[in-house]
Design a protein that fits this description.
mainly beta; Jelly Rolls; 2 domains; 4-stranded antiparallel β-sheet; 3-stranded antiparallel β-sheet
Length: 142
């Protein structure tokens, strides 16, 4: 699991504003902590060098206060058929959700080579949808 957290907090123990983790130029956002939180969790994982990664299950959910917007959720990886494509995220699996959740089981685990980056990405049908999206990957590396 990749994440960052607040190691120093004020009296309320949560972020009183949104916090972005960016590169030094401020042009790439790596992670985001929403107001009212103290941990930013991210659906991003790099398979360690000299290991293979395996995914057996993933799940996604999305919801909006109006209930009228859907979200496309994808697993993306920098490999395809065991070949690495550094920096190029290719679709592994995807689904669409609207005020619901869904899970996918793989009877035969999906295999990812060493140093492959794997992430879950979401795209709502509207920039003003204010969608709350969650995703989880289950698996191991060896």
């Amino acid at each position: 699991m990749n994440y960052f957290f607040a190691s120093a907090v004020g009296s309320n123990r949560i972020a009183v504003g949104n916090i972005s983790l960016t590169n030094t130029a401020g042009t790439v956002t790596y992670a985001y902590m929403a107001i009212g939180a103290n941990t930013a969790r991210n659906a991003f994982f790099t398979v360690p060098a000299d290991k293979n990664g395996y995914i057996t299950h993933w799940q996604a959910s999305s919801g909006t206060s109006s209930g009228t917007h859907y979200t496309q959720v994808r697993i993306l990886a920098t490999s395809h058929s065991g070949i690495l494509y550094p920096g190029i995220f290719l679709v592994v699996d995807e689904c669409g959700v609207q005020n619901n959740g869904i899970g996918f089981n793989y009877p035969i685990a999906l295999r990812f080579p060493a140093t492959c980056d794997i992430k879950i990405a979401a795209l709502s049908d509207s920039v003003s949808a204010n969608a709350n999206v969650m995703g989880t990957l289950f698996g191991w590396y060896e």
